[in-house]
Amino acid sequence: MAEDIINRVSNSKLKLVDLEDYYPDGKRLVLDIKNWLYEELVLREKEFRQFVNDHDWSQYIDAYVVINCSSDAIIPDWAYMLITTQLQPYAKFVASGDLQSLDSLLFTEIINNLDVSQYKDAPVIIKGCATKPVPVDALIQLTNKLKPIAKSIMFGEACSSVPLYKRK
Question: Which sign does the torsion angle of CA 33, 36, 42, 47 carry?
């Protein structure tokens, strides 16, 4: 007589948090302004403003956009702000930096708004092995948010997790 296979993980009190479930889908674009500079080094206000006015901003509809300058130019803060005023009606989110910092900023907002009350006094596993780019910074922020309320925190999968914290 064969015994039924029982999934002990699904019957346990373990709570799984998979940040990949919260990953904001959508195109991510980098707006590199080096070509808007004189010799890719000097920002001349009049010419720069002309580039901003002439640029096709519609290509950023529903995109997550980071503004950067890949040359060693010193860019005044107002230049990023000026570009943002043009991007704002089109883009979902605008920041400065690179694509990795963009994902970190997006996850900061997601984790700040995440309701973690369901994890109160529970053993929690933060899922590893994501197929989408979940930044390490997001894992750190989630750990910080869960530690005051969770009974324990582990990382990985239920079958092979790494213990990180256990309340005393």
Answer: negative
One domain for residues 32 and 79 = yes
pTM > 0.90: yes or no = no
Q: Answer whether residue 62 is part of any domain.
A: yes
Q: Rg (Cα) of the chain, in Å, rounded?
A: 22
Nearest alpha-carbon partner for 42 in 68, 73, 76: 73
Residues 32 and 87 in one domain: yes
- Distances in whole angstroms, Cα of residue 150 to Cα of each of 3, 112, 144, 153, 161: 34, 16, 10, 7, 16
Residues 83-139: tens digit of each pLDDT: 999 999 999 999 999 999 999 999 999 999 999 999 999 999 999 888 888 999 999
Q: Where in the sequence is the domain holding 162, given as residue range(s)? A: 8-24+115-166
Distances in whole angstroms, Cα of residue 95 to Cα of each of 24, 26, 31, 88, 150: 15, 15, 10, 11, 32
User: Cα separation of 55 and 94, whole Å?
Assistant: 16
Is 126 within 8 Å of 158 (Cβ atoms)?
A: no
